[in-house]
Amino acid sequence: MADAMPTREGVFLCSRDLDVTGNRVFNHHFLLIVSSNDYLKSLGCDTKANYLTISGIESDGRLKLVYNYGLDTDACTKGERDFQCKPVRCPDGCDYKGFIKRLVDQAECYVKNSAAHKVSYVFYKQNCATFTTSMLVHAGIPYPEVVKLADFRGWDVGEDKCMEEWLFR
After folding, report:
1. By the 8 A CB rule, do 12 and 75 touch?
2. Left if phi > 0, otherwise alpha if psi is -120 to 50, otherwise beta: which for 140?
3. pLDDT per residue as tens digits for the range 35-85
4. What is the Cα–Cα distance from 80 to 87, expressed in whole angstroms?
5. Angle at CA 85, nearest 5°, toward 35 and 157?
6. Buried b (16+ CB within 10 A) or exposed e, 69-80
């Protein structure tokens, strides 16, 4: 049964079925950020709601960051594709607004750095789960905690890998 989308402010590590053609074995991992629409817009986020999704997807052999990817937002808002959602605690010394800002800043750095350095997508070692693990670890959540959070129903691939920090700085 799919989880319900959280309504309280926070950061959540989420998954949904990867494939929409009926092969529902693998999970797609993404981040869900829930906050006020005004706060998200103040950070430069293009959103019309009180949430934002951040995920890494394959595009032309590259690992590309996307905001509010349609299948991710549908999974959140409609409870589709075996949507699963786990809260992520704030890093030490940080409140949710600061944590959200840190993640949005890291995402923008990744967009810039990956455009200049062409980050490859490799299904078993550098994928959506690797991307979300890296975002959270480089934002200050301990690696063992992230790997434990990233264990969802279904098959998770790449969640135990972490990309280099310079991509997010």
Report:
1. no
2. left
3. 999 999 999 998 888 999 999 988 888 889 999 888 889 899 988 778 999
4. 19
5. 125
6. bebbbebbeebe
